[in-house]
Amino acid sequence: MELRTAASPRDVKHYTTERLREEFLIEKVFREDEIYLVYSHIDRIITGSAMPIKKELVLTAGDELRAEYFLQRREMGVINIGGPGTIIVDGKAYEVGTKEGMYIGMGKKDIAFSSQDSENPAKFYINSAPAHMTYPTILIKPEGTPSDDVVIVKDENKVELGTLEDANHRTICKYILPGQVESCQLEMGITALEPGSVWNTMPCHTHDRRMEVYLYFEIPEDSFVMHFMGEPTETRHLVMRNEEAVISPSWSIHSGCGSRNYTFIWGMVGENQDFDDMDNVDLKDLK
Length: 287
What we know:
mainly beta; Jelly Rolls; about 45% strand; KduI/IolB_isomerase; 4-deoxy-L-threo-5-hexosulose-uronate ketol-isomerase; isomerase
């Protein structure tokens, strides 16, 4: 598990591009037949992946957590952006299709990941946060039929925003949030931009009460996203490619503009789960 420390906005304004990338960019998120994790001191979020191809991958705590097992004091959200896969939680198997997700509650001990087809492997994207109580483990689907352990994303949690004229026509699909899938602090979802739109989260905002991590994907090899971060009056940028992630501190904006449309997963942790609790930034105030 890679460790990353927190950063002061007063320091970040002096960073070179190389230093910005070292501190905030997670360049190779998915690694074949490996569980790869990054532990950030910013709200103690863990971001990473499991990409099983030829073998089942078992999640362990590692020395960094000083825990008997990974979710002893944590909760976890997972969204699969690859082929169909399976997540086994304490002996129970969940079939997780493309763009389906899971919330796994604190206290679950044995967690393993596998792919149904090695030629089209699953790519399980992971966010994990400290937890104080146990909520039910749930399989999350954008469409389908609900059951005891399957939640379908509610229509009111599929939000269409922006316009093609403003180049930010997008749909937000909220997976983990209060009223749909309960958690201690973690929220996750997917935002997809429509063809012809390139801006996400614009107008932009900050939220002092929680931080955020983005995973950009569905970006062609010859395309990129220019991710903007930093204080609203001290903006910085990172050039990001397909299936790369970026850590966004609570004091930083988190907005992007691509060379074409793309999709991203957002994950938030902190002391507040109010999705609309944000400090909006007027476009004329950006510098």
